[in-house]
Design goal:
The protein is mainly α. The chain contains twelve helices and no strands. The relative contact order is 0.20.
Length: 308
């Protein structure tokens, strides 16, 4: 692989995480809209936008073939349905958390997400963990306990975000398709529900879309673009860079969200939260370094076998 390909891949991946980290600003602009209506519009317009992408990238045929294949493979069809529901739940909790003043806890969820993925891999896929991964998980657990004890409330937003996205990743392992086709299929599953809910709001006269302002309408429609663009750039970048580098880059998003929550939107960041984050940051550092070391060792062994 050319060095320039790796550099371009890193730029694409970093750009996607940068957008994800700044997305709270977008949802804050829609603070006057109910979180459920924002989610419905996000799903519906994401599906419409992805259909346009499929048409212009000439992947419509691939989309249709993949859809027919899913209809004949119940295992993949169920995995697709579960993935669609999980990502919708994740989107809803995140939007609600941001617009309800829980941006710091939302960032916590995405910090601990890689460690939740470790746990799921161990429990569901029977993967063996290294000593460093065990240490990482224990340190992160201590961080969660600190938040729970100090505030007297279980950090359900952070845990729900981490679990829903971790389980989403697990479901995606069973769906090996093109990234743009995959996102189109996922939104296809829940787009009818989103459309029905949007129509229901119109009938009830409680809709913001088409009644609030042109700016609100454009923001709700633009939610599809804001959702799809970083996912597409992420897919481009992930194909060209090592997993270890991708692991480091993924912390850009929650770091930006944390900065926004503390310094821009003035959310309270207590000493106990700082202590909890320090445990989790330490866990992530150990996890990331051990992962890099593992990848390096695997590469060295592969090169050694090639020379024998």
């Amino acid at each position: 692989m050319k060095k320039t390909d790796t550099q371009i891949g890193a730029i694409h991946a970093a750009f996607s995480y940068f957008i994800w980290g700044l997305l709270p600003i977008y949802w804050k602009l829609l603070n006057h809209v109910n979180a459920k209506e924002i989610l419905a519009n996000r799903i519906f317009w994401s599906f419409i936008f992805m259909l346009i992408i499929l048409f212009f990238t000439k992947k419509w045929g691939l989309f249709v073939r993949t859809l027919k294949g899913f209809a004949q493979n119940k295992k993949q069809m169920y995995a697709l349905g579960i993935a669609s529901i999980l990502i919708s739940v994740n989107w809803f909790i995140y939007i609600w958390a941001v617009n309800s003043g829980h941006m710091i806890e939302a960032s916590l969820g995405y910090y601990i997400n890689p460690l939740v993925s470790i746990l799921l891999g161990m429990v569901v896929l029977k993967e063996k963990l290294t000593i460093y991964q065990y240490i990482s998980f224990i340190l992160a657990a201590v961080g969660v306990v600190i938040v729970t004890v100090s505030h007297g409330v279980f950090p359900w937003i952070a845990i729900s975000l981490a679990l829903s996205f971790g389980l989403y990743g697990l479901a995606k392992k069973l769906i090996n398709v093109d990234s743009s086709v995959g996102l189109s299929l996922e939104t296809l599953v829940v787009a009818p529900i989103a459309a029905i809910y949007m129509i229901y709001l119109i009938i009830q006269g409680s809709n913001s879309f088409l009644t609030a302002s042109i700016g609100t309408d454009l923001l709700l429609m633009g939610a599809g673009v804001a959702t799809a663009v970083p996912l597409l750039y992420f897919a481009k970048g992930a194909q060209k860079i090592p997993l270890s580098l991708l692991g480091f880059l993924q912390y850009i998003a929650p770091t930006l969200t944390l900065i926004l929550g503390v310094f821009v939107y003035q959310e309270h960041f207590s000493k106990s939260q700082l202590l909890a984050f320090m445990f989790i940051w330490t866990a992530l550092t150990i996890y990331s370094l051990s992962k890099t070391k593992l990848v390096t060792e695997m590469k060295w062994r592969k090169e050694k076998r090639a020379t024998l």
